[in-house]
């Protein structure tokens, strides 16, 4: 392994006539050298960005409003030309694109469930785009198709399924994975829906918790079931579905002449990071003959940790599982798996695309099991990360994120200027809290305090984004007014960053004006 | 613009103890140098692959059956370890992954509608993955969100829509874009479907041609409309929808008490590359009050050419359009746009994800108009390509692909060992033909000749893949037995490659055995 330190040269200004254009790159006959030089310059820009992303002295973002960016900051024009730009200008465009973006890999970016910049995963993405192929057939993606199969099997094994139960596919995001689960369940109970449509079916009812992701409702809307037919089951204070509420909702739906068929249990809710009690829910699904889906988009990563996987006990009883390695496992966007028997749910047998008289085993052509046709290669980055870290590497990453959450929780408990949204220790890496500005600290609870408190987080976030040194999300939920949600999925984040975040919020929030 | 020629060093074998692991890379404290060196080695591998992809002397693929790859060729193990592999081994894995894959950018890869390796697009993808962010909100993707808006507006302008008609989104593939179109149409006529589901609706009927993409049927199945409710309209010999057939199908459906609501017209069919007569179809849609969708996934690229855009005349009358720049415009996979008014079709107003009290104009948060939640950044590569080439660059690429098709067509007409599937000049870059082996040349047309002819293309393709010097697809269609479909979307392809393909097919096909 040789070290070749890369210098980051600046692009020299040369008169435009000498500057190469895209036509000088491959496939031009003598395009190899120009192509390599162009990529070398690009790689310098990209690696400089990568290094900066990890430096605490650099900003997370340099915020501008849409109209400012549209007007062309410092000559950065977003408009599309009729004539070509030269390669030098393109590199400047690339630099500017990164400059005005958000460093989602920065150790102080706490804004999303997906954060961090895994450099092995990044290497995997660069290779994936260089290979530029499609997951629909083995003939154009032999290696990636097998990697997908191996990854899915491994994930199923980790979920706790036997070999035969396995199948699945990587989809463009957790919402699509959840949509697949509803599709699978509907087809399982009513295979005629594929040809006859919903008109031939009774009124179907789905169940999901009040804290679950909105994709269950969206799926019902898209699939023609209707979002009104999603029954929202009550949660306890901690954001966990209450099994008794689920059971009574099922009975009520049956009494009304509807047909319950699907329950979504969440393993790691978006805001609280709560885990629904999977075994209790699985018992209810079994006794009523319902499909159990577990949305572990966010919580699935905890399966990699011997310390934390107990929180998903019962997941092996699910009929389908969503698990997004692009969240807790740090894979670059997107990487989301739906696990479950796809079989012929989506099959259309378009022989003109998926010939069965080819000379290899065409059961490896995955195109006909998906609801896409062409499909991006989302697996290689995860495969490469798994090779690089081993299962153990993922375990240590996950544990570290949860340690950061516990650190934040402990700090918050000690501070009088913050208030926790729920008092119990976080189960996942989500920590939810309010900052209480001086003027609100002695107000008694009630609508007036709530009204004011609701304005605090947006105001602090706005100032934080303008300043650009950290980023965190907020939201209201149920009867709770706007509160911050801090999440940890970035292995670059250290406890010092957690401490920094609290100081930052307190200092930005200390002097904000809240209207009387 | 400085030239930095890159040497491609071989990876030296060093004793395993000294070899860095992933833990030595960023975010490790002193990880910058190791990270840069690792990427430099990777980039050497990737650029060497890119250069090879364009060399005619290199193979398109090195075919192996699934079981061979699974067994681990020359130590290339696909299995996922518990313990980390070192960085050197990862680079070997990367090299092997490319080695056993398919060079979709090779000038002699004719297998798919998406081919070619656009190096500017590739640069765009490397940057996209380095930025590693998500299209759902402006706050995490300010630049990309604006680029998407600008690209969509430009594409709408090219389609011929006025400013106000515009909206849209980039989706993971043309099938998803077509699915959006059905969703939009259904919501337009029956907005209650979102909450009440299909049960509240009459029996809806969709229309699409016999040569259209199967995604219309798949969408009907997924969306709960049912694939039986897709009426397949007859085409003429050239694969174009017959307007009179469409109209009579609509009337028949109405007579049966069903509700026609949606017509898909194809601009560039998958196999023949045929363009449906859009104006005639638009007239019918207007008179019956139906939604007109134009699936220009494949043909949309021709809009960039002043010479060829006439073939899509009438597309401006469509209510929604699918257009995949990853096909004819050569953008890396995936890059597919659905154009049309999304408005509140998919909106769920999940305030816990899409807060409206943020300090910027939140109409730029696109998450709630899509059926995904998180969404990959598919726009930057196209934006960068547009900057690099200008609209004019795309025009010349498209024209060149169609010239190649015409060259192939002219050659085929002259050769006695080949037979065209249809005699007229190709409208798009698809050219469909049979190779006729010596034993079949004097057989009279009929079932026996057809049975034998059906076996020819698969046998030739199998041999071609084993040899690895070119790749082309085949399929049956309607009453036509297996024939080759050659498509041109790779600007690297020259007429010499077209000539090579014919010689290759003839030489592989000359001696094949067809069972009596």
From TrEMBL, chains A, B:
Highest rank taxon of the organism: Eukaryota
Pfam families named among the record's database cross-references: Pyridoxal_deC (PF00282)
Molecular function per GO: glutamate decarboxylase activity; pyridoxal phosphate binding
Gene3D superfamilies: 3.90.1150.170, Type I PLP-dependent aspartate aminotransferase-like (Major domain)
Keywords: Decarboxylase, Lyase, Pyridoxal phosphate
InterPro entries in alphabetical order: PyrdxlP-dep_de-COase, PyrdxlP-dep_Trfase, PyrdxlP-dep_Trfase_major
Modified residues (N6-(pyridoxal phosphate)lysine): 327
Cofactor(s) it depends on: pyridoxal 5'-phosphate
GO terms (BP aspect): gamma-aminobutyric acid biosynthetic process
Subunit annotation: Homodimer.
Entry similarity comment: Belongs to the group II decarboxylase family.
PANTHER family cross-referenced by the UniProt entry: GLUTAMATE DECARBOXYLASE 1-LIKE, GLUTAMATE DECARBOXYLASE-RELATED
Protein name: Glutamate decarboxylase 3
Lineage, broadest ranks: Eukaryota, Metazoa, Chordata, Craniata, Vertebrata
Gene it is expressed from: LOC109874694
